[in-house]
Write a structure and sequence with these properties.
Strand content: 5-15%
Pfam family, one: Aldo_ket_red
CATH topology: TIM Barrel
Structural class: alpha/beta
Protein name: Aldo/keto reductase
Order of helices and strands: EEEHEHEHEHEHEHEHHEHH
Number of strands: 10
CATH architecture: Alpha-Beta Barrel
Distance between the termini: 25 Å
Number of domains: 1
Length: 283
């Protein structure tokens, strides 16, 4: 898939909840390094973090992982708190993130969710950061259709390079209106929690015999099947989180799964698309 002309592997690395526990840090670092080492000069591996995640702990962990690979092969995404998205505070937040990440630029900088700071002010600050070379592109996260429409009315609003929202087989609400709107405007989707945090969101995927039948036929796990489903339109970047290096490799391998049209239809019939507007799901 592509974001702002950059070719990116459709499955990347999420880092929410990573970097907080010192006992887990060695395994977490190894997992991120394993994933990033799969990148190449032709197709980048994305890694997604935020100043919110552990109040910077995640960014520090990502910064360490970046030291083991070529920075040019990584598509680095971070996010700014809404209350830090002013003309005065955004440059300070960005500088702090870059310091923790041990890099001099971000590939993509996202407004983490809509806040009280006027969107026009935030876009101006993001455009200034882009002109300075500290970020290559900017986007948004947790924006619903009305938020995107407001953004599109701003002079530089259409420079938005992506929208990151919750999306998985058990949470298809965006397919009614937001996803069609993004597709029409050619705005890529970044799907967080693409495997619904395992079965923790109550979807019970592992107990679904129909999914297991399809997964077994292709020699993959149900979670790999969920990832393949999330990126099926080739316009979506999925960012599953894993602290296990073997799981990271199996996550990345899910991008190579090819299902038949009948199999896609069978999955869709078991987890129905929305038939009316739903509130934007968030975690």
């Amino acid at each position: 898939m592509e974001i702002a002309g950059e070719k990116i592997y459709p499955i990347g690395l999420g880092t929410w909840h990573m970097g907080d526990d010192l006992v887990k840090r060695t395994a977490e670092l190894a997992a991120l390094q394993t994933g990033l080492k799969q990148a190449s000069s032709t197709v980048k591996i994305a890694i997604d973090t935020a100043e919110m995640y552990g109040d910077g702990n995640s960014e520090e962990l990502v910064g360490k992982a970046l030291q083991s690979v070529s920075r040019e092969n990584v598509y680095l995404i971070s996010k700014v708190y809404p209350w830090n998205a002013t003309k005065e505070k955004l440059p300070q937040s960005l500088a702090a993130s870059l310091k923790r990440l041990k890099t001099d630029y971000l590939d993509l900088y996202l407004l983490h969710w809509p806040g009280e700071v006027p969107l026009a002010e935030t876009v101006t600050a993001l455009e200034d950061a882009k002109k300075s070379g500290l970020i290559k592109n900017w986007g948004v996260s947790n924006f619903d259709v009305s938020d995107m429409q407001e953004l599109w009315q701003l002079p530089a609003g259409k420079n938005c390079a992506a929208n990151e929202v919750l999306y998985n087989l058990g949470s298809r609400g965006i397919e009614f209106d937001l996803l069609p709107w993004l597709n029409k405007q050619q705005v890529p989707l970044i799907a967080y929690s693409p495997i619904a945090q395992g079965d923790s969101l109550g979807n019970q995927f592992l107990q679904d015999g129909g999914l297991q039948e399809i997964a077994t036929r292709h020699g993959v796990s149900i979670f790999q099947l969920l990832l393949a489903w999330a990126i099926r339109d080739e316009k979506t970047l999925a960012i599953p989180q894993s602290s296990n290096k073997d799981h990271v490799l199996t996550n990345l391998a899910a991008a190579k799964i090819q299902l038949t049209k009948k199999e896609w239809q069978k999955i869709a019939a078991r987890y129905l698309a929305p038939t009316k507007k739903q509130p934007l799901a968030v975690l």
